[in-house]
Amino acid sequence: MKKNVFAILLVSVLFSCKDAKQEKTADKAVVVKDSVVKTEESESTAVTEEVFKNEFDILIPQTYRTYDNQNPVKALNQKWVELYEENGEFFLGKANFKIEKGYSECSGDSTLSIMPEKKVLLLMDDPKLKTGKIKSLKIERDKIWPKEKMSFTFNNVNYTLRGEGKVLSEEKVSTDDDKIEIFKKVEDYKLYLTIGNNPEKLILTEASFNDTFVEFLFAGDIDGDGKLDFVFGANRDYEEERVILFLSSKAENENSVKKVSEIAVQFDC
């Protein structure tokens, strides 16, 4: 009888130990799983909070609305530098402009308009830029659609821009100079740049467009380092004018370019 009782007690103890180990193992698995989930959430949050900041301000000849007594044009002065075109060539010069006050019937806001004396593409708040004629390339076409490339040579170095994205539809449209071209509706657009034998670099992405697309506005040596700099129009909507500036001298990798500034002007109602 005593032997039977002892055997029963021994079996009970063994099962209790086994259950305890399973509970501890299960608890440990849950803790590890929770830890992984929290790590993924924190990484996702960090990415979404990253916001681009201009290294210096830029403006385009446009009309800007005043909100809460704030207007970007108020920062503009003669210390700024303008990138302008004259007889098919580009120059940097001290900003030469007039500011015209107005009123937007559309939004009900007062406005300030930049009225340059010359054909100005961009105004830059970087007085370190040297004025004078700058070496630039003639752009044969202003759009690089998905599955298209554009290659050119500057100071004996080869450059290639390549577009990627999803083309949703195509249609024939009339241009301002009464020509007919194919316009494509694109999503998930990516623009890549290859310089020489260096790895290809992603320089611009846009998830979608509303009757607009990326335009190639300028390629030339703005900062005087002997390498190409770029200006792109990247309107996301037909009621927006947005311009992005890329400089080679600001890039961490000397064989690339870096986005240094952008300006977006809204004129929706």
Helix content: 10-25%
Strand order of the largest sheet: 1-7-3-4-8
Q: What is the overall number of helices?
A: 1
**What does the overall shape look like?**
globular
On the 0 to 100 scale, the average pLDDT is 84
Low-confidence stretches: 1-49
First-last Cα distance: 96 Å
- From the alpha-carbon coordinates, what is the Rg to the nearest angstrom? 29 Å
CATH architecture descriptor text of the largest domain:
Beta Barrel
Structural class: alpha+beta
> Could you tell me the strand content as a percent range?
35-45%
Write the topology of this structure.
Blueprint: H1 2-48, E1 58-59, E2 63-65, E3 81-86, E4 89-94, E5 97-103, E6 110-116, E7 119-124, E8 132-134, E9 149-154, E10 157-174, E11 180-195, E12 201-208, E13 215-220, E14 229-233, E15 240-247, E16 258-266
